[in-house]
Write a structure and sequence with these properties.
Strand content: 25-35%
Shape: globular
Largest sheet: 4 strands, mixed
């Protein structure tokens, strides 16, 4: 037996801001609930996790202990530029510049990485 990632949940203070950012960033479709939350669905893809934006009313505190690693369908540098244009900002979590990823934070400060390439199992 094993489990699969089905959904990624983010506690958010400004639901509308985060719906705009994450739906544009991921290309997901948003459905806002009556309870101060929203679900983001990958269009036409049942195999990808959904995102639940859970209204918390409180700001983020401290560094995320778990964060998503994203991979772009084009050059990672262009994707970083696009995400910054949507409201993300570069984040310093102690990286040295030699990593195979670029760290960003969403408009409410939640860190995530844009990988330079998709993860691969080492040959051998």
């Amino acid at each position: 037996m094993s489990v699969q990632v089905a959904q990624w949940t983010i506690d958010v203070k400004d639901l509308d801001l985060m719906i705009r950012f994450w739906s544009e960033a991921l290309g997901y479709e948003a459905e806002k609930g009556d309870d101060g939350s929203a679900k983001l669905f990958p269009p036409g893809r049942e195999d990808l996790p959904t995102v639940w934006l859970q209204g918390s009313g409180t700001p983020k505190k401290g560094k995320n202990r778990i964060h998503p690693d994203m991979v772009a369908d084009g050059p990672w540098e262009k994707e970083v530029e696009r995400l910054i244009g949507l409201g993300a900002r570069p984040a310093d979590v102690g990286q040295n510049g030699d990593e195979g990823f670029f760290v960003l934070a969403d408009p409410e400060g939640n860190e995530f990485c844009v990988l330079h390439h998709a993860p691969r199992r080492p040959a051998g």
